[in-house]
Each structure stands twice: as C-alpha cells, then as structure tokens.
Amino acid sequence: MLKIIDKIKKDYVFEGLEVTDKETLFKELSARIASKVSQPADIIFETFTKRENEYTTNISNGVAIPHGRIKGYGSTDIFVAFLTNTINYDSDSDEHTPVKLVFAILSDEDNPKDYLLNLSQLFFLVNQKDILDKIVHSNTYSELAEALEGVKAMDEKYETEKQIKFLIELERADIQIRAYELYSSTHSKQKSDAVLEEYRKYKETLSEKINEEVLENYTRIKENKGNALSKIENYACSACNVAIPKMIVNEVRRQNQIIPCFHCGRILFSTD
C-alpha cells in the first residue's frame, strides 16, 4: 500500500497560497511549515533552495515537489500547498513551467532511506494519470482527502497493476540515469552527480517494492533486450511491432497478471 497517503495530515495542508514565483512560494511555504514544526523558516527556505539549485523539482503536469533534509529534523513529513494562481515555476528557463499544486518533503539528514522511500512513493503517486487528475483538481484538504481515499481503495485492490506501475517507474528511472550520465560528460559534473545520486537511490527504493521474481524477470529481459517493457499500441507490441491478439490485449488491460509479448518477450503494458 502507498503509505505516503497516510502521512498527508490536515495540519500540513495549506490552502490558498498567494505567491507569484518560486522564491515567494518557498518563503511563504517555509513560514507556514515553521509554524507547525520545530524548525525556523530560514533553515527550511535554505533547505528547499539548496536542493532546487541542483535541479528543478517541477515534475510537470502542474505539480512541483520541493524537498530536502535537515540535520536533527527527526522525522519525515509531507506538506501540501494549494496555490491560488498558477505560477511559472522555473522563470529562468526558456520553457513555460506552470505549477498550481505543491507537495513538499522534509526529512532528517541522518535518515536518507525513509526520505527516499517517501519521495519515491510521492513521485509514483503523482505520475499516475488517473490519480493525478483527481489530485490536481483539489483545492482544499477535504477534496484532497477524498481523492486519496479512492487511491487507497484502488491500491489495495490491484496488486499486479501496482507491480507493473513500479516497473514502468523503474524503467523511467533508468532512462533518466542514462540521460544524466550523458549530461555530466558535457556539463557541470557536480550538479549532475547530485541528481544522478538521487535517481539511483530512487531506483533502489523502487526495486525494494517489486516482487523478487518479477524484478529478476525484468532484469533478465533488460539485460538481453535493452528495454524490458513494451506498450501495446494499435493491438501491437510497440517494441517488435508484432500484432497482439485482442484476447491478450484485454488481459493486459485488466492487469490481473504480468504478460510478456510472445514474440520479443518484453513485459506488455497498456495505458488504455
């Protein structure tokens, strides 16, 4: 089960933040968090800013996840901020990066495992379109809680679906790691190394959630094929372009079991 959901407390949900950019967001968010925990606002602001300077925490789809660790913080907490207006989160970027909903994580510097576990679950949560659609339309704690209750019921019901989604996230993490390894060869190594380390730990945390046999199968396919997953598109395996029978496609969509392509052996998934 996504334990992350139970960590989102009413006192840690802030409604109606009126901010104009990322800096004012961090200042307002830090002040509100400081009123709930035993940490000064300037330390919280510095923690968010330090991590942000390494790489943006805007994860697209209108959501950002600023996060960081503080020496002696003592726990791992999740805060939610509903903004009254969409802001251009990375105003120094050439791209428009709108953000309306913010999840923030603070954790203890000496407990990286719990920090990464919560971060990975939060990334997983907001990267599922059906879940995200419900969350981003929330503006109050009660609306968010209602959306998350539905997620909990779904999470408990679909164990196989959850495994497949973890595999998709694992493959996405692998792609990001390869991209940053390439980036570090031509840009600031120190900056990219920090992000690389975070993705590698994220991948490690994801791996711990996946059934051992499923993970072994995924790893074996990946070693042989390069990519272990293949999306079904127009009733065909997108990796090898071989047609998939309608009956098999329907089974993949139900996600009651993990089904490989009978031709290339990759694990099939569908977003329909």
- Total of domains: 3
CATH superfamily of the largest domain: Mannitol-specific EII, Chain A
CATH third-tier fold name of the largest domain: Mannitol-specific EII, Chain A
Determine and state the CATH class of the largest domain.
Answer: Alpha Beta
Report how far the terminal alpha carbons are from each other. Answer: 23 Å
Q: Quick check: average pLDDT? A: 85
Count of helices?
9
Structural class label: alpha/beta
CATH 2nd-level architecture of the largest domain: 3-Layer(aba) Sandwich
Estimate what percentage of residues fall within beta strands.
Answer: 15-25%
Please describe what this structure looks like.
The chain is α/β, with parallel strands linked by helices and 272 residues long. It folds into three domains: 3-157, Mannitol-specific EII, Chain A, CATH 3.40.930; 162-223, no CATH class; 227-269, no CATH class. The chain has nine helices and eight strands. The chain has helices at 22-34, 41-54, 112-126, 129-136, 141-157, 159-184, 189-209, 212-225, 246-254, and strands spanning 13-17, 62-64, 67-70, 77-88, 98-108, 229-233, 236-237, 267-269. The strands form two sheets. Strands 1, 2, 3, 4 and 5 form a five-stranded mixed sheet that branches. Strand 6 (229-233) and strand 7 (236-237) form a beta hairpin. It is globular, with a radius of gyration of 20 Å.
